[in-house]
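Per your request, structure below.
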C-alpha cells in the first residue's frame, strides 16, 4: 500500500498554529534590527536610509529588502506608530512583537508557493519524494529557530530561491529563473555565494546553443542581460543618482570583521581554530612559538575577531581563493553536463564551499546548503547518505543561537523529532542507487548521530551545572567543532556522489 503524506497546506496550518504559540518566546537583537529598519524606511527620505546610524544596527541589506521594510512599515503604523520612531531604541511593545512575528509567518507564503510548485513539477515516483522533501523544508527546525524565535525573514527569501530553482527546471522558465534570482540578490547579498552556479547554468542552457558551446544565442543573451540590468537598476538606481553606491557597498561588505563570527560557524576555520587551541598546550613541548597576545582571543570563543596563537593567520584572500577553487570544481561538470539535477548539485556545492572556506561566515548560512540539498536528497540512497550528517550537524549547530533555558526544550525536542521523523521517511522513500554505496560513510553517519545526543545534553545543561559561568567558551567550541566534522564529512561525501553520478 502506497504511503500518503499530508498536503503542504495542511502542514502549513499546523506549523502556523505552533509558531503563533511562540510569539512570546526569546527574541534576539535581530528583532531590534528589523524594528529599527522599519523606522528608518518609514521616517526618513530614501537618501538617508544608508547613512542613518542612530542605532548600532544600521541598514546593511540591499535596497529591495529596504523597500520590503518600507512596505511593512505602512502596515506597522496601524499596529503601533511608536515602533516607527528612529530614536525609540529597544522598543518592544506587545503590538510590535506580535506584528513582527506575524509578518514572518505571512511572508512565508512565498516559501509555501515555491514548494508547491516544486512538488507539481515532479512526476511519478519522484513526486512522492518531492512532497516529502518539500514538507521537510516547510517544517525545517532551522527556519523555526532562526525566523520564528531568533527572528529573521529567511523563509520568504528561501522561497524566492526555491522558486528560481524550480523555474530553471523547464527550458521556458530559464529567463524567469534568472530574474527571480537577481531580485533575490537585491534582497540579501549572501546569495552571491550561489551566483556562480546560476551564471554557469544560465550561460550554458540559455545563452549558448545546446548543439555547440561555440554558438551564442544573442537574442537570449540580450533578454537575460537586459532583465538583470533592469532588476539591479530598480534596486540601486535611485541611490546611484545620488552617488550613494560606495556608501551602500561599505554597509553590505564590512571586510573589517574578523575571520570567525562570535560563535564559530561549523566550517574549516572552526576546525582550524580548534587545532590551534590544542596546539597551545602542545607547542612548548614541540618547540613551537606561541603568541601570548592571541591566547585570549582563541579561548574566549564569544568574540568576533580570532587571532591564532600557533597556526598561521588566515587572510580574506586565502578564504576567497579556497572558496573560488572549490566552487570551480563542480562548475566544470555543470558546464559540460548542464541538467537540472547537476544544477541543484552545483548550487549546493557552491553553498558548501562558501560556508566552509568563507570569511566571517555566520552559522545561519548553513541553510544555504541544507535547503537546496533537500530538493535532491531523495534522488537515491547515495545522495541521502551524504545528506544525513548535514541535516544533523547543520541544525544542531544552530542551537547556541537560543541560549535561554525556556527555549531549550523547544529547540531540542522539535529538532530531534524532525530528524527522527524525516530521516526515517527519507530512508523509506529514497530509491536504491545503481552505484555502490559507501559502507564506511554510512557507519560514520550512524556514529556521528549517536554522539550528538550526549553532546547536546552536556553543552546545553551539564556544563552549566558543573562549571557554572566558568569556561563559557568550551560548550560553544565543542558544539562548533563537532558540527564542523559533520558538515565537512557531508561535503566530501556529496562531492564524491556528484562526480560519480
Amino acid at each position: 500500500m502506497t504511503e500518503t503524506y499530508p498536503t503542504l497546506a495542511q502542514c502549513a496550518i499546523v506549523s502556523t498554529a505552533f509558531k503563533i504559540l511562540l510569539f512570546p518566546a526569546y527574541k534576539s537583537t535581530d528583532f531590534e534590527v528589523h524594528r529599527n529598519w522599519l523606522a528608518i524606511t518609514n521616517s526618513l527620505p530614501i537618501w538617508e536610509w544608508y547613512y542613518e546610524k542612530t542605532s548600532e544596527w544600521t541598514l546593511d541589506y540591499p535596497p529591495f529588502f529596504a523597500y520590503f521594510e518600507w512596505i511593512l512599515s505602512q502596515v506597522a503604523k496601524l499596529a503601533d506608530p511608536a515602533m516607527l520612531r528612529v530614536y525609540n531604541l529597544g522598543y518592544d511593545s506587545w503590538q510590535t512583537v506580535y506584528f513582527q512575528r506575524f509578518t514572518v509567518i505571512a511572508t512565508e507564503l512565498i516559501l509555501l508557493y515555491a514548494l508547491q510548485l516544486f512538488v507539481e513539477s515532479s512526476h511519478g515516483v519522484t513526486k512522492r519524494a518531492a512532497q516529502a522533501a518539500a514538507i521537510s523544508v516547510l517544517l525545517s527546525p532551522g527556519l523555526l529557530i532562526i525566523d520564528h524565535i531568533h527572528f529573521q525573514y529567511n523563509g520568504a527569501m528561501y522561497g524566492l530561491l526555491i522558486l528560481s530553482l524550480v523555474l530553471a527546471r523547464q527550458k521556458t522558465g530559464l529567463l524567469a529563473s534568472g530574474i527571480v534570482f537577481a531580485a533575490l540578490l537585491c534582497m540579501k547579498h549572501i546569495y552571491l555565494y550561489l551566483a556562480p552556479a546560476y551564471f554557469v547554468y544560465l550561460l550554458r542552457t540559455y545563452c549558448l546553443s545546446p548543439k555547440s558551446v561555440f554558438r551564442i544565442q544573442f537574442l537570449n543573451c540580450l533578454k537575460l542581460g537586459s532583465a538583470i540590468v533592469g532588476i539591479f537598476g530598480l534596486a540601486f538606481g535611485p541611490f546611484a543618482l545620488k552617488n550613494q553606491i560606495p556608501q551602500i557597498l561599505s554597509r553590505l561588505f564590512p571586510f573589517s570583521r574578523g575571520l570567525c563570527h562570535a560563535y564559530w560557524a561549523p566550517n574549516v576555520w572552526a576546525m582550524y581554530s580548534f587545532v590551534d587551541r590544542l596546539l597551545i598546550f602542545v607547542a612548548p613541548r614541540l618547540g613551537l612559538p606561541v603568541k601570548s597576545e592571541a591566547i585570549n582571543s582563541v579561548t574566549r570563543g564569544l568574540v568576533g575577531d580570532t587571532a591564532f596563537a600557533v597556526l598561521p593567520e588566515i587572510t580574506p584572500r586565502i578564504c576567497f581563493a579556497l572558496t573560488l577553487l572549490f566552487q570551480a570544481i563542480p562548475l566544470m561538470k555543470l558546464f559540460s553536463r548542464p541538467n537540472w539535477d547537476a544544477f541543484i548539485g552545483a548550487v549546493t556545492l557552491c553553498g558548501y564551499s562558501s560556508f566552509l572556506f568563507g570569511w566571517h561566515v555566520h552559522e545561519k548560512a548553513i541553510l544555504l546548503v541544507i535547503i537546496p540539498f533537500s530538493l535532491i536528497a531523495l534522488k537515491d540512497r547515495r545522495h541521502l547518505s551524504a545528506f544525513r550528517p548535514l541535516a544533523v550537524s547543520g541544525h544542531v549547530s544552530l542551537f547556541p543561537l537560543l541560549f535561554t533555558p525556556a527555549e531549550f526544550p523547544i529547540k531540542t525536542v522539535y529538532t530531534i523529532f524532525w530528524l527522527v521523523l524525516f530521516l526515517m521517511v527519507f530512508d523509506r522513500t529514497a530509491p536504491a542507487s545503481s552505484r555502490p554505496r559507501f559502507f564506511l560513510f554510512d557507519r560514520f553517519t550512524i556514529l556521528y548521530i549517536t554522539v550528538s545526543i550526549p553532546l547536546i545534553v552536556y553543552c546545553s545543561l551539564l556544563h552549566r551545572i558543573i562549571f557554572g559561568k566558568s569556561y563559557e567558551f568550551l560548550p560553544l567550541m565543542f558544539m562548533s567543532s563537532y558540527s564542523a566534522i559533520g558538515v565537512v564529512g557531508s561535503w566530501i561525501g556529496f562531492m564524491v556522489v556528484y562526480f560519480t553520478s
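The chain is about 65% helix and 0% strand.

Regards,
D.
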